[in-house]
């Protein structure tokens, strides 16, 4: 079986490719990227005879589709801004697909994937992705599900790559209409920095004030658990405190609107300029603490009694004591490994569904948790009465 790794030269997607090299039986693993020099460095780093490179620019849809048709499956690690284009190409090519973000228009291609008996799973990293499965795992142990609170701490530099800088700005864009909470049967749009809540993350991360973010779990869980009596879903997130301080200042001063300004006769969006500075600066590419932390709370009833399920996750430390998890890789591996696991499950027929499928309906949570455990990423679960 052959796999095309779209955007495989990216800092996160290359970790998914690394995991494929380490754990999968794909006979051919192709890095498909528009950045040839970086992709060639990744191929050299991976040092595996199955890995090669082909230049693919997703904006050249005809070439991208023709390339994809030579593979069984596309693992898509491209940025949010091009995920609709990449999903369209995968659907047209008639192959299986899975991507990292799930924050674009992948659902528009459901009929195309079904027609060709293929599956596309949008959003299978840590969040969305593992958070969906954590929620389902808890919900399956309850008769009714009333409240769902999903939180994460992504401890990484604010702009260690252009795609990450884009993600940061998208999530706090004041014009964004998909920053939603679900309350009593309807979606409610909220502004950036809405509904602050202190969340206790596993060590070494500690307690952090978190705010509502525009992640797809809010919408997918409402649909996948439509018969469970859900009254509220809130999804929050945070980055390192200095990142949050900067974002708050940018929001308060109107920079996040990305208004056009003129500098020496050249028009540019102010946030585009700030993003470029952050990508090129030391401050934008480093942080004090690296890694990822999930926190999922599900409240419901079983046998007439209220129960609270809390799930978290931990991974090897970033302090250099565990080889391969040093510094930024403690973050990028956490995000990339679930993408690899989902990819391998699709390849092995681990999901019988077709069409565009929510993560929580695509895979068995316990099977994925066991795969994470093999890679030293552990899911922790506690239950208490309310």
What's the CATH class label of the largest domain? Alpha Beta
Rough outline: globular
State the domain count.
2
Q: Given the helix and strand composition, which structural class is it?
A: alpha/beta
Total number of beta strands: 18
Proportion of β residues? 25-35%
Overall radius of gyration: 20 Å
Describe this structure in words.
The protein contains 14 helices and 18 strands. The chain has 386 residues and is α/β, with parallel strands linked by helices. It has two domains: 2-122, Rossmann fold (3-Layer(aba) Sandwich); 130-332 and 367-385, Dihydrodipicolinate Reductase, domain 2 (2-Layer Sandwich). Strands 7, 8, 9, 10, 11, 12, 15, 16 and 18 form a nine-stranded mixed β-sheet that branches. Strands 3-2-1-4-5-6-17 form a seven-stranded parallel β-sheet, with helices on both faces. Strand 8 (180-183) and strand 9 form a beta hairpin. The radius of gyration is 20 Å and the shape is globular.
């Amino acid at each position: 079986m052959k796999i095309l790794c779209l955007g495989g030269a990216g800092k996160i997607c290359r970790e998914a490719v690394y995991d494929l090299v380490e754990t999968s039986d794909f006979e051919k693993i192709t890095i498909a990227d528009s950045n040839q020099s970086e992709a060639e460095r990744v191929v050299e780093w991976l040092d595996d005879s199955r890995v090669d490179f082909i230049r693919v620019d997703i904006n050249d849809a005809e070439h991208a589709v023709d390339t994809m048709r030579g593979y069984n499956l596309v693992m898509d690690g491209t940025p949010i801004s091009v995920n609709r284009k990449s999903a369209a190409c995968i659907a047209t090519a008639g192959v299986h697909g899975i991507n990292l973000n799930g924050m674009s228009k992948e659902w528009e291609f459901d009929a195309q994937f079904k027609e060709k008996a293929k599956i596309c799973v949008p959003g299978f990293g840590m969040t969305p992705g593992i958070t969906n499965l954590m929620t389902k795992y808890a919900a399956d142990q309850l008769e009714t599900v009333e409240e769902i609170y999903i939180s994460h701490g992504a401890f990484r530099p604010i702009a260690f790559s252009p795609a990450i800088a884009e993600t940061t700005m998208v999530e706090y864009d004041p014009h964004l209409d998909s920053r939603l909470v679900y309350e009593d049967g309807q979606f409610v749009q909220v502004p950036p920095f809405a509904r602050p809540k202190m969340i206790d993350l596993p060590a070494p991360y500690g307690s952090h004030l978190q705010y509502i973010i525009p992640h797809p779990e809010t919408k997918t869980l409402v649909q996948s658990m439509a018969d469970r009596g859900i009254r509220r879903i809130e999804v929050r997130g945070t980055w390192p405190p200095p990142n949050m301080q900067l974002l708050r200042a940018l929001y308060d001063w109107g920079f996040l609107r990305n208004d056009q300004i003129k500098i020496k006769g050249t028009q540019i969006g102010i946030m585009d300029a700030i993003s470029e500075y952050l990508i090129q600066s030391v401050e934008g590419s480093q942080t004090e603490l690296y890694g990822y932390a999930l926190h999922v709370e599900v409240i419901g009833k079983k046998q007439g009694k209220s129960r609270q399920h809390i799930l978290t996750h931990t991974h090897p430390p970033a302090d250099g004591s565990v080889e391969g998890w040093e510094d930024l890789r403690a973050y990028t591996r956490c995000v990339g490994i679930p993408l690899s696991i989902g990819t391998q499950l699709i390849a092995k027929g681990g999901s019988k569904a077709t069409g565009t499928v929510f993560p929580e309906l695509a895979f068995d949570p316990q099977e994925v948790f066991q795969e994470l455990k093999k890679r030293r990423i552990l899911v922790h679960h506690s239950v208490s009465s309310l």
